Amino acid sequence: MELSQTLAQEIVERAMRILPGNVNVMDAAGLIIGSGDPARLFTRHAGARQVIAEGRAVALDATAAARLAGAQAGINLPLYRQGELVGVLGVTGEDAEQLRLPAELLRLTAEMLIEQAAGRQPDAALMTAPLLRQLLAPGAAPELGRHASLLGLKPDVPRDVLLLEFATPAPTFGDWAQRRVADSWCLPREERQWLWYRPGAEAPQALLDELPAQGWALQRSAWIPVTQPWTGLAEATRWALDLLTVAKRLRPDLVRVTLADLRLPTWLQGQAERPESAWLLEPLLRLRQADRDGQLLATLRRWFAEDASPQACAAALGLHRNGLRHRLERIQALTGRDPRRFAEATELYCGLLLLDSGWADSQS
């Protein structure tokens, strides 16, 4: 396929909406057929010819560009259609490495336009996954939202987060999900997990009921119902991952988990790695060190599991009430917190959740 001048100029115009420097598009022979600088049209670009010869991105600083006819400092990337090199995208700028990410994202846009011009619907999931991963990463740069808009991803539409874990890999789930809910995003996370970002935040029960008919066995789902534009989805994603982790540990019986089911333990899971949370762990670490056979920790877990009911806890442990009282007094002596007093029990409960998250062991 030959890259047309009309298509090349469309790519340039889209790109220059979000980039301050000039953009050029070269054909497969290295001729500039689209440019933000009309004076450069239909001239040869030596940097592009190097990209064509080597089949890889070529970054040029001012010194290197001065040695190549028709080249300026910046970065040049190959454009492909179905594995065939059809042109080169060049972005001008002094710091080529700083341009690499926006240029790569623009390349995605250009290749989608090339596919569409050839009458072939591009694989949206394949083309947009790299951008979505950047967009959903903590601390994502604001310009990524503009790139997402160029690709038609509607980043400012508020979306919820639904994390699904299947019994076996479900490689086609993303295609189905994006057809099933318009303007939703899907990303595979691990071999059996998918993150699904849906506009509207409607309860997912009806959608989850459809999965068996598609051949997918849901092992567990975690839903964060609050909708966010793209700038808030990194945090919402972390909540979903923490919720799934906590549900596996505390409520393995729950298949469809929502944040309301385990809000406090999920919040604590997110606090575990923060140094300011250490004070909650310290009393439990002292208890664990002194509790060689684990009897006192087991008693504390059961105490909370039985809603601090002395009768129910003693019965569950097979103890006389006096035996339970003795253990609770030992816990108080070792931790400085009385599990029979509400405020102090709350600290112990939160500390126990942090301890059982495994984070303390991972730091030792």
TrEMBL record:
Domain PucR C-terminal helix-turn-helix: 296-353
InterPro entries: CdaR-like_regulators, Diacid_rec, PucR_C-HTH_dom, PucR_C-HTH_sf
Residue ranges of every copy of the Putative sugar diacid recognition domain listed in the record: 3-118
Superkingdom of this protein's organism: Bacteria
Positions of transmembrane segments: none
Name recorded for this polypeptide: Carbohydrate diacid regulator
Source organism phylogeny: Bacteria, Pseudomonadati, Pseudomonadota, Gammaproteobacteria, Pseudomonadales
